[in-house]
Amino acid sequence: MRHLLSTKTITRDEAIALLDIAEDMADVAGREVKKLPTLRGKTVVNLFFEDSTRTRISFEAAAKRLSADVINFSAKGSSVSKGESLKDTAQTLSAMGADAVVIRHHASGAPLVLAQSGWIDAGIINAGDGTHEHPTQALLDAFTIRRRLHGTASRGKDLDGVTVTIVGDILHSRVARSNLWLLTTLGARVSFVAPPTLLPADTSAWPATFGFDLDTAIDAGPDVVMMLRIQAERMSASFFPSPREYARGWGLNDERFARLRADSIVMHPGPMNRGLEISSAAADSARSTVLEQVANGVSVRMAALYLLLSGDREDS
Ligand code: CP
């Protein structure tokens, strides 16, 4: 794998192979000595133009567990604030010998531009670009679902027939898009539930079903309910629904959580708005995978870095 930009182009076999490598990496994380020498001498740059807690830290932990050197770059406090372009930033990183660049950017398509530019000869990993994609989040979500369903017998398995209901701000969500492509490739059936104002105008090419009523979706008894963060920073003050209307109509509150099928799992990519899209009772319950998702993120990102940086990089 030369770059990891999108889940749309990942095949079922490629996805399963990456998840299986992540299982091996999770075994390493459970050991007393967590480090592997695999990427010794390689340099991974975390290039973050948007804020992040989980993704940036877990890429750093993943690279260090594989013995790579890590450079953390945040646009805040860098020469980007003086007007430096993506090209000049990339060429500066190239001059410093970056082997992989993990990029989060507010512009959809920025990782693809970097991968195709020729400004830098490095593997590019999309760590979230605008409203477009967040592929490693979807991979860690698939890994988490597979582990909850199959436990230690997960290797080699897909998600055939698993029902996943994704709820919330689909319009702005790169997590929703990456999960749609990956989960359906793995055989899951995806449905989206959202207020009409938080669904994209044209979803005709999306292999999913759509609804506006969360209560109906909960009573259908999905295997997985994935709550998304309301991206209030992308909405105006007069937006419908208001936070109060949203919580009442589309929040996973205590009453809805109590009605969920007893063995359904509750997911959230984080960061969470507790009391808005998810109650604390749901987020902190034994059925919640929120912290498992974070822990699994390190293993999945180790697998992605391993595939990008060990051996020959193939175009894909
Ligand atoms: N899920 C996720 O991308 O979280 P961060 O924004 O904290 O990286």
TrEMBL record:
<feature type="domain" description="Aspartate/ornithine carbamoyltransferase carbamoyl-P binding">
    <location>
        <begin position="2"/>
        <end position="146"/>
    </location>
</feature>
<dbReference type="Pfam" id="PF00185">
    <property type="entry name" value="OTCace"/>
</dbReference>
<comment type="similarity">
    <text>Belongs to the aspartate/ornithine carbamoyltransferase superfamily. ATCase family.</text>
</comment>
<dbReference type="InterPro" id="IPR006132">
    <property type="entry name" value="Asp/Orn_carbamoyltranf_P-bd"/>
</dbReference>
<dbReference type="GO" id="GO:0044205">
    <property type="term" value="P:'de novo' UMP biosynthetic process"/>
</dbReference>
<feature type="binding site">
    <location>
        <position position="137"/>
    </location>
    <ligand>
        <name>carbamoyl phosphate</name>
    </ligand>
</feature>
<feature type="binding site">
    <location>
        <position position="104"/>
    </location>
    <ligand>
        <name>carbamoyl phosphate</name>
    </ligand>
</feature>
<feature type="binding site">
    <location>
        <position position="270"/>
    </location>
    <ligand>
        <name>carbamoyl phosphate</name>
    </ligand>
</feature>
<dbReference type="GO" id="GO:0016597">
    <property type="term" value="F:amino acid binding"/>
</dbReference>
<dbReference type="InterPro" id="IPR002082">
    <property type="entry name" value="Asp_carbamoyltransf"/>
</dbReference>
<dbReference type="GO" id="GO:0006520">
    <property type="term" value="P:amino acid metabolic process"/>
</dbReference>
<protein>
    <recommendedName>
        <fullName>Aspartate carbamoyltransferase</fullName>
        <ecNumber>2.1.3.2</ecNumber>
    </recommendedName>
</protein>
<comment type="subunit">
    <text>Heterododecamer (2C3:3R2) of six catalytic PyrB chains organized as two trimers (C3), and six regulatory PyrI chains organized as three dimers (R2).</text>
</comment>
<feature type="binding site">
    <location>
        <position position="271"/>
    </location>
    <ligand>
        <name>carbamoyl phosphate</name>
    </ligand>
</feature>
<feature type="binding site">
    <location>
        <position position="174"/>
    </location>
    <ligand>
        <name>L-aspartate</name>
    </ligand>
</feature>
<dbReference type="GO" id="GO:0004070">
    <property type="term" value="F:aspartate carbamoyltransferase activity"/>
</dbReference>
<feature type="domain" description="Aspartate/ornithine carbamoyltransferase Asp/Orn-binding">
    <location>
        <begin position="160"/>
        <end position="308"/>
    </location>
</feature>
<dbReference type="GO" id="GO:0005829">
    <property type="term" value="C:cytosol"/>
</dbReference>
<comment type="pathway">
    <text>Pyrimidine metabolism; UMP biosynthesis via de novo pathway; (S)-dihydroorotate from bicarbonate: step 2/3.</text>
</comment>
<dbReference type="InterPro" id="IPR006131">
    <property type="entry name" value="Asp_carbamoyltransf_Asp/Orn-bd"/>
</dbReference>
<feature type="binding site">
    <location>
        <position position="229"/>
    </location>
    <ligand>
        <name>L-aspartate</name>
    </ligand>
</feature>
<dbReference type="InterPro" id="IPR036901">
    <property type="entry name" value="Asp/Orn_carbamoylTrfase_sf"/>
</dbReference>
<keyword id="KW-0808">Transferase</keyword>
<dbReference type="GO" id="GO:0006207">
    <property type="term" value="P:'de novo' pyrimidine nucleobase biosynthetic process"/>
</dbReference>
<comment type="function">
    <text>Catalyzes the condensation of carbamoyl phosphate and aspartate to form carbamoyl aspartate and inorganic phosphate, the committed step in the de novo pyrimidine nucleotide biosynthesis pathway.</text>
</comment>
<feature type="binding site">
    <location>
        <position position="82"/>
    </location>
    <ligand>
        <name>L-aspartate</name>
    </ligand>
</feature>
<keyword id="KW-0665">Pyrimidine biosynthesis</keyword>
<feature type="binding site">
    <location>
        <position position="54"/>
    </location>
    <ligand>
        <name>carbamoyl phosphate</name>
    </ligand>
</feature>
<feature type="binding site">
    <location>
        <position position="134"/>
    </location>
    <ligand>
        <name>carbamoyl phosphate</name>
    </ligand>
</feature>
<feature type="binding site">
    <location>
        <position position="55"/>
    </location>
    <ligand>
        <name>carbamoyl phosphate</name>
    </ligand>
</feature>
<dbReference type="InterPro" id="IPR006130">
    <property type="entry name" value="Asp/Orn_carbamoylTrfase"/>
</dbReference>
<dbReference type="Pfam" id="PF02729">
    <property type="entry name" value="OTCace_N"/>
</dbReference>
